[in-house]
Amino acid sequence: MAEEAAVVSRPTQQLSSRAGWSDIKARHPWLVFLLSRVARLVVVCALLLVGTFLMVRLMPGDPARRILGLQATPEAVELTRHRLGLDRPQFEQLWSYCWNALHLDFGESFSQGVPVRELIAERFPKTVELAAAATMVLLIVGFGVGTLMAVLTRDGRRPRLDATYGTSMGALSAVPDFVLAALFAVVFGLYLKWFPVAGDNGLSSLTLPTLAVAIPGIGFLSRVVRAEALDVLSQNYVRTARAKRLTGRRIYIRHVMPNAAYGGVTLAGVSFASLVGGTVVVEQVFNWPGMGSALTSAVVNRDYPVVQAGVLLLGATVVIVNTLVDVLLAIVDPGALREN
Amino acid sequence: MRNKYLHALFRTPSGAVGSLTLLLIIALAVVGPLLWHDAAQAENVTNLNLGVSRDHLFGTDGLGRDVFARTMVATRLSLLLAVGAAVVGAILGYVVGIVIAVLPAQLRRVCLAAVDVSLSFPVILLAIVFVAMFGGGTTSTIVAIGIAFAPPLARLSSNLALAESRKEYFRIARTLGVPTRTLLPRYLLANIAEPLLLTFFYAIGSALVAVSALSFLGIGVQPPSYDWGVLLVNGFTLLYVQPAAALGPAAMIVVTGIGLALVGEASARAANPRLAGARRRTAGDDAQNAQAAAEPTPDDPTSDDLVLDVRDLRVAFDTPAGEVVPVRGIDLRIRKGEVLGLVGESGSGKSMTALAIAGLAPANARVTTERCRFLGHAGTPAGLRSRRIGQRLAMVFQDPATSLNPAMRLGTQMTEAVRAGGVGRREAVERAVERLTDVRIPAPASRLRDFANQLSGGQRQRVMIAMGLMTEPALIVADEPTTALDVTVQAQVLSVLRDVNVRSGASVLLISHDMSVIAQMCSKVAVMYAGAIVEYGDTADVVHRPQHPYTRALLASVITLDHSAESEAPAEPGGVAPSADGRNRPGGCSYLARCPIASERCADEIPPLMQGAAGEVACWNMADKEQLV
Amino acid sequence: MTALEVTDLRVQYGRGARAVRAVDGVSLAVPSGGTLGLVGESGSGKSTVARALVGLAHGSFQRLVVADAEFSSWSRPAEARVRRHVQFITQDPSSAFNPRSTIGASIAEVLASPVRESASGTARTPAELLELVALDTGVARRYPHELSGGQLQRASIARALAARPSVLIADEITSALDVGVQAGILRLLGDLQKELALSIVFISHNLAVTRHISDQVAVMYLGRIVEAGDSEEVLVQSRHPYTRALVDSVPRLKVGAPLRLPIQSEPPDPRRPPAGCRFHPRCPVGPQTNPERTDCIEHDPGTIATSASDAACHYASQATRTIAAQDTTVPG
Ligand SMILES: Nc1ncnc2c1ncn2[C@@H]1O[C@H](COP(=O)(O)OP(=O)(O)O)[C@@H](O)[C@H]1O
Ligand code: SF4
Ligand code: SF4
Ligand SMILES: [Mg+2]
Predict the structure, then answer these.
(1) For a 10 Å CB count at each end of chain B, is N or C smaller?
(2) Do A175 and B254 touch (CB under 8 A)?
(3) C-alpha B95 – ligand 2 centre gap (Å)
(4) Closest Cα to atom 3, ligand 3: which residue?
């Protein structure tokens, strides 16, 4: 046997001197993978910069005019154009916009007169706090319910429970977060007075917004988790594990869960990323001092520097989270790395 | 297709409720503004912010207008906005997606990456950005949300179209000269239309939520126009005084959304049988698990030569279409060290037999036996689920590529069964190395750290055998272990199996559809046809002096090197076998329709296994005459 | 007369160090009205040859002759000629049909194709074609999922015949079927060949099956043809050790015959074919067992064409059938 292996490997050694990019790729998959993800991250952030820059410039009509309204004097319009930097050559505008943005300098808020940076430093952590809390609830409940339903309804068991579950989760995901928010505010805030309905007074204030953000997602997530788990349960290797007479617990823990983890990590990442930008409406309902409510009022007030900075920051967060998820996936399933 | 949907919609209660709700909402959208327009506009300063009453179901607003009337009137605009945004999104997304799918590979990759990036932004955030650019109002709300919806729809349609164009039948149609004008509508669009339509349906629901959300934030529909979102935010300012003004429009949004979701769910179930819970059961039954606790006891010292003794094994399924009986009462006796072949065409019930005796039959299968003894322990096949006894039976499945866990190292997979039985880690690893050596895997110690995808097909199958050997099995059940493999690899796997049989003394039940494999490997052979054994005997007798006409047909169809090109073309068993669900099953012998020597009796009586010239045969015309009564 | 001929066909998948030369200089000639068998292990490049010949894989060649028209590179006219004359049937019939069309509609599409108008032979209706492959005409109204594997494979032969080809390439068309069904398909193929004067390329990993239907046989190993010739000759007097291994791998219908194990090891990584003779790490009579055969490691015995009955082995001339492959005889 050893002899055979040696002979087979001989040509490999001869050929390995042919080094090239794809050879490096074959030998250091991790390095190449990380490099490619970082490169993608940089490109996307650059695109975001350009995108937010163009956002103001591609608007139909004169942005300054739109900010100030039709009654504004030409002088005021000119002044605003200057403050926006619209009077300088396009390339110079882009360059200074990017340069400043990289130094986290987004100028001053039109409506509040404070530097955008300060505004955001105050608001952004609040949104992350809400999104993280909601993601946690979403994942725990979503995975719990999804896995439980998969186990209960596997192989076509309990068809009635299966149908009821599908229907109710479908209905649940049809309830928009702001409706839930309003409902919660009335029921738990107003009548039962269990939780405050506005502002930020620690954990008790966090509860209602968190639930309002998380619950519509549970309907979706738990169904995806269930489908994923059922798929793994029906794989041939699970039958092999049964043939080995392993205990049910070991089959679930060692054979089913690791194979379902791939899908799980993806979903967790997607959930968090979408919640970071998706808390906008609920923040408004509960007067939560996060990015969402700041962004909304900025749009209403045509406070473009804040809109730009907000979109840029939320976008970058989403992209960074996605990159982290990719790396995590590669750790969970190193096989996929090799194939890629 | 349309009938299928209609049927599905009204078959389930949730689908029926959903469809009726939607019809009602659509009716409201049509007649709402006609019926309630005046009431909705009438301001009344004496009636400001009234609560719920007979006259004002949802109370009145800050200008004294009736909120119920306004909610009804708003139905039309809300629906139009939602459908409009979904249409814009679908047109944009689907067109972009399909165009991307037909681009050259390099360009396609770039475009897909761009779509992926935009995909990661929440719809509401994108919509806000576009509203910030275009300003508020009805049209810009539709456009903004439509654009924000486009990326996911583009991704979906390009994925579907790409997958479709890579299908084998698509490529073959091309080589057959089917022109593009046929390919596009009949292959590509026909196969992706269903999921795209379903998604469009879901998109309307999501668009309703997004439109309402924008209006709710005050950046969507602008007064004096109003949709449910505007009403909701107006009511929201009065939440503490007059909750009905907010909850009314909220209820409409929720009801419409649920209606859409229910209808979507029902149509998805109709389109996808997997969602309908029609999945094949593969797991063990709880009842069977309960039996596992009661360990079977040895009670028959006389039969210790018999490793497995099963009498009258039956496997039946209850399906909506009636009872399906893949295995119809068969006896199997396997002696120590014996290699028994089970041969028959596909669908004859061989795999179901193997799974049933291993206690691995699907949960909805009804497995019954008159007698079942494994290693002298009486019990049911499911009793084998007991670990100590059950592990003495090892399984090797047909598809080695999917039967090993892709995410677990081979070493862990091989050792986990014995480790659970209390064997130490080091000893288990040593044993695994030994077993891998037994099945001729080179460099076994380093192989233990590998994953299954690092092995070739033949190696995987040999690892499966080695894994079974870990628990010192008394019986190895190998279900078509080489059918998926090349002849050279088949030779390797068979020789390993033979080695193992000789060296460890384990008996083997070898299942195959190929008589030549059986002839090489087995000492006894059972021929299976339509769920029953039709011939049983020494391999030499069955192969060289076949009795049953089906056995002869099976043998004649084998192509070996001994058939020279000049000799008569090998025959195939003509016609079709009776299926397991009992359709086209004649009253008498199940081979009747294909039998060249059938006589009168064959149509009336089912032939049991009888003594033949050599071995046993289930045929009225081949059994020993003395046997016949 | 050859119906289809290709010289020095090469197909590569991927690039750089991961590149696989799936087909590395293959030359084939299909005799008009005859059958050429192509055998080899899975991964040896048989299917790639087939797919390249019908344009489903991108390959290069020196010369391609299709029904007396010669081409020196893959071009539109070459493609058109191939579409007109060459048809292709795959291993898995269940993926070969559009699931949304009835079998009849799938066949009718091919009949309606504009390319067919200039085709030779008589046009037939779907019903006639189904009859030709011994299927019930009612099959025309059925959907693919309603048919068995054997029925579907017959239907896909019928559809290929709708295009009125002169050459049929059959890629492992019986490998997914039971032996009983396989026998029927092979007989059908033989009958059709006589009736329609078809030329056939029959691809299989089983030498017995290939020999059963072929006049000529080419044996492929790691992207190359290592032995070719008259099928009886290749079988009875195989000169390449790999051919002999394939011969010995075929199970016999003889009870008590020794179980032969011609090759023990796995095929090498096709991305890095062994130096010298590509078969040397596995060759039962090569340097593994005869250390003095250093030629095998140092010199490539090269590629050969079908025309000459030859074998790509330095020791082919010394080889006879009696050099026994490693027999493992186990008392049964
Ligand atoms: N879960 C199931 N429900 C209903 N019928 C089944 C199920 N599984 C298998 N069958 C039926 O059992 C019969 C025998 O199948 P199988 O044992 O796989 O045959 P073989 O192994 O000989 O090919 C087939 O007709 C098949 O349709
Ligand atoms: S019993 Fe009759 S029909 Fe059945 S196999 Fe024998 S002769 Fe044929
Ligand atoms: S050249 Fe050498 S290694 Fe290659 S086939 Fe011939 S004897 Fe074997
Ligand atoms: Mg089977």
Answers:
(1) C
(2) yes
(3) 62
(4) C280
Question: What is C217-254 written as a DSSP string?
Answer: EEEEETTEEEEEEEHHHHHHT--SHHHHHHHHHSPPS-
Q: Which residues of C touch A18 (CB under 8 A)?
A: 17
- Spatial separation of the C-alpha atoms in residues B465 and B435, rounded to whole Å: 9
pLDDT along chain B (629 residues), means of 10: 61 81 89 78 70 72 77 88 93 91 85 78 78 79 89 88 87 84 84 83 87 84 84 78 80 88 76 42 33 40 74 87 88 93 91 90 85 78 67 88 88 90 91 91 89 86 91 92 86 90 93 92 94 94 92 88 61 70 77 87 89 89 70
Q: Which of C106, C144, C90 is nearest to B186 (CA)?
A: C106
pLDDT band at C328 (very low <50, low <70, confident <90, very high): very low
Per-residue confidence (pLDDT) for residue B567, from 0 to 100: 56
Q: How far is CA B103 from CA B106, B112, B182, B193, in A?
A: 8, 11, 19, 20
Classify strands B393-396 and B475-479 as parallel, antiparallel or unpaired.
parallel
Closest approach of C236 to chain B, Cα-based (Å):
10
- In this structure, how many other beta carbons lie within 10 angstroms of the beta carbon of residue C76? 7
> Residue C314 Cα, ligand 3 centroid: separation in angstroms?
6
Residues 6 or more apart whose Cβ sits within 8 Å of residue C215: C31, C34, C35, C36, C230, C231
DSSP C119-161: -SS----HHHHHHHTT--GGGGGS-GGGS-HHHHHHHHHHHHH
Question: In angstroms, rounded to a whole number, what is the distance separating the alpha carbons of residues A220 and B300?
Answer: 56
Contact B313, B330 (CB under 8 A): yes
Closest CA to B248 of B83, B65, B17: B65
CATH 1.10.3720.10 residue ranges for chain B: 2-276
Kindly state if the Cβ of B619 falls inside 6 Å of ligand 2.
yes
Residues of chain B with CATH 3.40.50.300: 301-522
β-pair partners for C86 = C167
Tell me the CATH number of domain B301-522, given options 3.10.20.590, 3.20.20.370, 3.40.47.10, 3.40.50.300: 3.40.50.300
Distance separating alpha carbons of residues B357 and A224, to the nearest angstrom: 35
Q: Does domain C2-221 have CATH number 3.40.50.970?
A: no
Judged by its nearest atom, the ligand closest to the C-alpha of residue B601 is 2
Whole-prediction pTM: 0.79
- Best mutation site among B133, B230, B253 for testing chain A: the one with the most A CBs within 10 Å? B133
Question: Is B129 at the interface with chain A, CB within 8 A?
Answer: yes
Q: How far is CA B13 from CA A171, B20, B276, in A?
A: 14, 11, 14
Angle at which helix B244-271 crosses helix A177-184, to 10 degrees, equals: 140
Token pair 């995808």 is found at B453
Is A23 in contact with C16 (Cβ distance < 8 A)? yes
CB neighbour list of residue C26: distance below 8 Å, 6 or more residues apart: C6, C8, C9, C10, C45, C49, C220, C223, C224, C225, C303
User: At how many degrees (to 10) do helices B425-438 and B457-469 cross?
Assistant: 130
Residue C6: both structure tokens together? 């290709």
**Can you tell me which atom of ligand 2 is nearest the CA of B622?**
6
B519 interaction partners in chain C (CB closer than 8 Å):
251-255, 257
Q: Please name the amino acid found at residue B436.
A: L
ipTM over 0.90: no
CATH of B2-276, one of 1.25.10.10, 1.10.10.10, 1.10.3720.10, 3.40.1160.10: 1.10.3720.10
C-alpha distances in Å from residue C31, one per residue of B573, C65, C201: 32, 12, 10
Q: Could you report the per-residue pLDDT of C220-251, keeping only the tens digit for each?
A: 999 999 999 898 888 888 889 999 999 988 88
How distant, in Å, are the alpha carbons of B86, B289, C209 from that of B142?
8, 57, 65
Is residue B416 classed as helix, strand or coil in its secondary structure? helix
